[in-house]
Amino acid sequence: MALSKRKRAQYIRYAQYVVIGVVAVAVVFSANWGDLQRFFLNPDIIKDQFPAVITTALKNTLIYTACGFTFGLALGLVLALMRLSSVGPWRWLSTGIIELFRGLPALVVFLALGQGFPRAFPHLEIPFGNIGTVTLALGLVGGAYMAETIRAGIQAVPKGQMEAARTLGMSHTQAMITVVVPQAFRIILPPLTNELILLTKDSSLIYILGLSLDQYELTKWGREGMNSEANLTPIIVIGFCYLIITVPLSIVVRRMEAKAGKAR
Amino acid sequence: MSSPTNTSSPTEPARAGAAIDVQQLHKYFGDNEVLKGIDFHVDNGQVVCVVGPSGSGKSTLLRCVTLLETPTQGKIFVEGVEVTDPDVDIDRLRSRIGMVFQQFNLFPHMTVLRNLCVAQQKVRKLSKEQAVAIARENLAKVGLSEKEQAYPAHLSGGQQQRVAIARALSMQPQLMLFDEPTSALDPELVGEVLAVMKELAAEGMTMMVVTHEMGFAREVGDKLVFMDGGVIVEEGAPAEVLSNPQQERTRAFLSKVL
Ligand SMILES: Nc1ncnc2c1ncn2[C@@H]1O[C@H](COP(=O)(O)OP(=O)(O)OP(=O)(O)O)[C@@H](O)[C@H]1O
Ligand SMILES: [Mg+2]
């Protein structure tokens, strides 16, 4: 064989392109475009979705996600600091909470808070209604994941940083807040953004709580639309709306990772 | 000269006029006894250099003085205050002891000026204006006034270490500890850091310096301490110890580094 390694790799790559191209052409020609368009991209139904899909559904998804993420971030930070504490019971408690809410499907957490909690504590009420419940549920699920990420980030900050802060007279807490945690968050910004993307999609589980029309978020909106129109176009529309949220976030993450790579 | 089988009682009060007074200090890491009964003192205004082979316990001794390591046994007094007393306010005490690390340990997410101000404001509770004034004074002293808005990553190693010294000085400490401040530097950057330290010594700052720079020890040091295997093998005037070591272990070490 007179082919150099590089030449051979090049030919294999060309072969791959050809295969992909053939598959794409086959899909395009074999698909039934007429039906596809009628059921998935019906222009009249698309027109009907706007602007409410944005002003209600997209807006609500953003609100639910933002509330859940914010609470989850705070909870995750607290759990991470407890995990790293020298006090045994703090560590055990946070490990228990983390394992519980990381292990349970998000749906179960929504059900427990939405259906279980009111029955278990009939005199208590989760404040702010559905928003309060979704904040708690998403926050617990997201916080459990983020706690481990944040802990890893804190541990990735060189030990000398804490030591330098302490030798300047700062207390452990002061050093954590002003020196260690800010550096940890820089390290873990990409994985945290990934968590935000996951929560965006998990926010759809709020449907389990029973929503009034003005509380619909994207998935619920799409489903209701699909049922009433007997057409999948609303689902395509809301899928597109999710991408409007998540793709820019992915791009931001990639930028941050590239930048972090360069700084090293 | 001190020996590992020192008989001084561990309940002696602090030595008068000593900035640092270490009595019968033992330090274990697990079963590993790293410091085996150290008696040692630094008088006010003195510059004491600590030398010795790698692993001899120099860093551990220095870190015990600011309680970055907890002594297993023995007493340490700083400015007459017993740091090994469990009731001592360690944060307050540390703010009066400047510490300079081999790896600089500047805060990478803060500008140079912020590095110098943050502890002044959080620990000493100075106003921003007061902190900035003190910070600028110390930056000028280490010759880096024009770098106050730079981030540490954009400075050379020598500049970073000078900023680290200025940061420690901004807490207006009564004494300064240095742990191999020039060991992480390229050879051509060592001089600028040593020059700053010399100037500090000339101003009368009390200093304890772990170093491999024998020239600095000879020129600036009031006392040279040679450690090996967790004990102080020999100590005395630097010129004396360097040119006429009394102990075989000292001779062997010096013949390797000089
Ligand atoms: N945190 C620690 N845990 C366990 N062992 C340690 C720890 N710190 C230091 N040691 C051990 O203590 C001994 C003395 O270490 P120390 O860092 O004080 O030496 P040193 O004289 O400063 O050496 P060097 O010149 O290499 O800096 C070494 O054997 C080291 O392995
Ligand atoms: Mg050392």
UniProtKB/TrEMBL annotation, chain A:
Its main location: membrane. Keywords: Amino-acid transport, Cell membrane, Membrane, Transmembrane, Transmembrane helix, Transport. It is a multi-pass membrane protein. The keyword Cell membrane applies. Residues 58-253 form the ABC transmembrane type-1 domain. SUPFAM superfamilies: MetI-like (SSF161098). This is Amino acid ABC transporter permease. The chain crosses the membrane at residues 12-33, 61-81, 93-114, 126-147, 168-189, 232-253. It comes from Nocardioides vastitatis. InterPro entries: AA_ABC_transptr_permease_3TM, ArtM/GltK/GlnP/TcyL/YhdX-like, MetI-like, MetI-like_sf. It is found in: Cell membrane. It holds the Pfam family BPD_transp_1. Belongs to the binding-protein-dependent transport system permease family. HisMQ subfamily. The keyword tRNA processing does not apply.
Automatic annotation (TrEMBL), chain B:
The keyword Cell division does not apply. CDD domains: ABC_HisP_GlnQ. SUPFAM superfamilies: P-loop containing nucleoside triphosphate hydrolases. It is found in: Cell membrane. Residues 20-254 form the ABC transporter domain. Gene3D superfamilies: P-loop containing nucleotide triphosphate hydrolases. It comes from the Bacteria. One of its GO terms (molecular function) is ATP binding. This is Amino acid ABC transporter ATP-binding protein. It comes from Nocardioides vastitatis.
